[in-house]
């Protein structure tokens, strides 16, 4: 358990390696890149073994469509249907004749009408019914109609052991049979209303039942035979035969041979005895790339424990884009250039920094190159897009900047592609469809920006959009601070301005340090009058307290601030500013009072803040800005010299106390911050500076 706890941060890396290696194709990587209509840039290629020339996917698809259209659906003839329907017709006709003759409602039928119906109409109906059933009435079936949709389609009718082909037009459907029978009988009826009523009530359509039933099993067997007869190949290439010469323009036939050679080569290498060697090579190469990313993060972290969530997020991004590339490549539903690789550096810049974004983008692109065609072109285009996305990802939370970033990504895709096209074959435009993929790619960059909020919640990150929201002084918590402790609020605003200016100059996240500064003293809301800036009329409640108790109240504002921040669901990054803005420094005033009152005392733990000390550049700048701004309120004379001396002494005390040693601030950064603090404080107090 101790071992797992110690190396827990490695789990995301190992999981990513396992996932990628498991899903990598088990074929050897074909070493040549080629495109139809382009020049063969490699040396003359000869076949090292015999292999078939496979037909193109489009050609095979056309042959399968032709086979499908040539299959005739099979129908079984049911001869008993005719005899049953003829008997029903005669019985129904005679019964209706008797009913109509004796019915007073129609005035009865004349002798002529009875004779006409019996001797002319009934035999004619029987004759037409016999003709219709001899031709056949096919049952409605959507599958069969699919085979019969082509003009001139035929169907095969099975009568016992006899099979007869019948054109679709010569067989009836229930609807066409009724129309045929009605058209033949209509001229035979007289104008006698009783006869017409008799015919309407007879309902001849009820005697037209399908006698041709679709045989789906035999039809499917016929289709399988046609499909099995289609050959996937169209010739052979023998060992030693020239496939393509150096400098030759790749024609359609040459492209077919090259594609077939690549397919056969990859299958033979993938499933021969070198399978395990291939897997070993894939494992080692994947490990190299992932280890490079791990070492980069480790070196950046200066050999400190690496965040598990940070590693999990990075490896999730790498694996997700690899899987997406694998899916697109295998399904061939679109070009790999539809995959918005630019989103990867944008997300990482949003939560981390540009350097890590570039390294992660490089590793992901190299892993994806395992499985994409024309990997050199892919790496080149995607690499430049990664640089552009990283450069443009600053302030990406602004909608206008997001759209400009998408436009820049599209422009980089297009320009790099045009450049490669010019180099390869002198064309200025290339294939027009690829620009459509580039456009969809840029649109997906805009759409996927909405995932930032999801990742914030899943991994506990803080984006610039969230920092902008919580830095709004109109939000409920900051408004409450302004009402309960107005002087503390003003102090926080001044600290925010000082810290933001310094961080912007030395490099860092200005939005993060500003948000941290606005909330760093939020704990003073619980006991505002115990802090000097909120006291009025020279009244101090500390006069009634022992120095040790006063120190505890002062120190407690850090713990209170953490509790308030978490209750209001502020990001953990802001909580860290609250905890570290005093570090482990002493509460100087009450510490001195206590020593004067109790000179023999040895325990001074109550007079020190609990810490920890700052661990980032932004936290260190906030600590200095907070101390400088608070100390500036104690000055009685505001001159450039007094302000400069104050800034120097305050920051020197922080450095002497080793408060900043865990940050990545350099001496140059600290010197720059001091210069900015002096300038800002002089601007604040300029009306008090003597000439």
What percent of the residues sit in helical stretches (DSSP H or I)?
55-70%
Biggest sheet strand order reads 5-4-3-6
Distance between the termini: 69 Å
Structural class: mainly alpha
Poorly predicted spans: none
Return the CATH class of the largest domain: Mainly Alpha
CATH architecture of the largest domain: Orthogonal Bundle
User: Helical element count?
Assistant: 28
- Rounded to the nearest angstrom, the radius of gyration is 43 Å
Say what the CATH topology of the largest domain is: Hypothetical protein af1432
Overview features:
691 residues, mainly alpha, 3 domains, four-stranded mixed β-sheet, two-stranded antiparallel ribbon, 28 helices, 8 strands
Would you write up a description of this structure?
The protein folds into 3 domains: 69-227, no CATH class; 307-459; 464-688, Hypothetical protein af1432 (Orthogonal Bundle). Helix content is 61%, strand content 5%. It has helices at residues 2-6, 11-23, 57-70, 80-102, 111-135, 142-147, 174-185, 193-202, 216-228, 252-271, 275-300, 308-331, 343-351, 354-368, 375-392, 399-425, 433-448, 451-459, 464-470, 476-484, 486-506, 510-519, 547-567, 572-580, 588-597, 617-632, 640-656, 667-684; strands at residues 45-46, 51-54, 74-77, 154-159, 162-167, 212-214, 233-237, 242-244. It has a 4-stranded mixed beta sheet with strand order 5-4-3-6. Strand 4 (154-159) and strand 5 (162-167) form a beta hairpin. The two termini are 69 Å apart.
